[in-house]
Specification:
single chain, mainly beta, 4-stranded mixed sheet, 4 strands
């Protein structure tokens, strides 16, 4: 379960957490196909942070991409590598 909420009167846009500060840097969601998901989000006008690319940790993930939600929070789209499927 993921609970997401905001103050009743709204909140200011999120800012990225500085590298030397504790806090949540982004949320990650797994998708079967990052490229297809990215295309759909881009067509819908979602703010793009980083286009799909191969992941550094290829034993775990195949591709990743980053977008921002409407509040400015960074969201990672992740596609599991073939040896991690299932």
């Amino acid at each position: 379960m993921l609970e997401v909420f905001a103050p009743p009167g709204g909140a200011s846009r999120a800012v990225d957490v500085p590298d030397d500060t504790a806090g949540v840097r982004h949320l990650t969601f797994h998708f079967d196909n990052v490229d297809e998901t990215f295309v759909r989000l881009e067509k819908a006008g979602v703010e793009i942070k980083e286009r799909p690319r191969f992941a550094v940790h290829s034993e775990m993930l195949n591709k990743i991409a980053f977008v921002r939600d409407p509040d400015g929070i960074m969201v990672e789209l992740a596609e599991r590598s073939q040896n991690r499927q299932g």
